[in-house]
Amino acid sequence: MSRSLLRDYAGSLRSPEFWIYATWLELVTKYRRSRLGLFWAFLPSLLYTFGVGWFFAILQGYDALEFIPHMGLGYVFFRLVTVSLSEAGTACAGHASFILDGRVRLTDYILRVVAKALFYTLLATPVIGVALALSPDFQAVGLLLLVPALLVVLANIAWMGAIVAVLGARLPDVNQLVGSILMFAFLFTPILWRADQIPAGSLRGSIARVNPLFHLVEIVRAPLLGEPIEKLTYAYLAIMLVVGWAAAILVYRRFARYVPIWV
Q: Are 138 and 225 in contact (CB under 8 A)?
């Protein structure tokens, strides 16, 4: 029997106990073994935002207080996408016991890895808040656009995660492939550099803007720092949502029923 991606996501959202509470319990249990606890989850954002951000600001001749929030926001939201997709590749295999027991709504496992990435993002909020408070470019009005922009990012993660999860259940190498692609994409995402360094009309700018993560990061960060969002970003993300969800629905309907056999 074929499964519906939209119906399964709706069912998962109506019953969040498994993928929210269980994920939070997993993280708390994991870090409880350490004396510093959740501080270890907080530390990478602190180091990247103020450590790496300060270093690359000096390296490129930018004002540190201007570049640090650029770096911090870019890193945090890039990590939200990459953690979700890299762990989605092993989501089904990692929950094989649940699937073999008859819990075949795969969106529960996809949302579990997305929830984990979101918790890490929430833990980075104090760091980003300090960086923005110190920034001369911070635009408070951008906070009004933060939730809609984040929903666009999560909507794209949802369809990409569904494809990666189903393919990853059949082909274990998909997880390694996705990880390699995301590592390569980091260099073409404006995190260590700024988008205005390579304008859209240039060859390098055109190559960078083929990268979906370029637009997923910019849609969230640009309003907060008073930077314009390119028209290409709106068009790119709209096409991604339409084409991506159509592809994910087809893949899920065709192959999700085979996942219990594959795992």
A: yes
Query: What pLDDT is recorded for position 234?
Result: 95
In the chain, pLDDT over 90 holds for what percent of residues?
72
Q: For position 37, what pLDDT does the model report?
A: 67
* Domain locations in the chain as residue ranges: 5-262
Taking phi over 0 as left and psi of -120 to 50 as alpha, with beta for the rest, 13 belongs to: alpha
Q: Does pLDDT of 256 surpass 90?
A: yes
Residue 31, Cβ density class (10 Å: 0-12 exposed, 13-18 middle, ≥19 buried): middle
Averaged confidence pLDDT in the chain: 91
pLDDT reading at 34 higher than 80: no
pLDDT of residue 88: 93
The arithmetic mean of pLDDT across residues 64-72, rounded, is: 95
- Residue pLDDT, tens place only, 154-177: 999 999 999 999 999 999 888 889
Cα dihedral 75→78→84→86 (10° resolution): -90
DSSP the chain: ----HHHHHHHHHH-TIIIIIHHHHHHHHHHHTSTTTTHHHHHHHHIIIIIIHHHHHHHHT--HHHHHHHHHHHHHHHHHHHHHHHHHTTHHHHTHHHHHTT---THHHHHHHHHHHHHHHHHTHHHHHHHHHH-TT--TTHHHHHHHHHHHHHHHHHHHHHHHHHHHHH-THHHHHHHHHHHHHHHTSTTSS-GGGS-TTSHHHHHHTTSHHHHHHHHHHHHHTTPPPPHHHHHHHHHHHHHHHHHHHHHHHHHGGGHHHH-
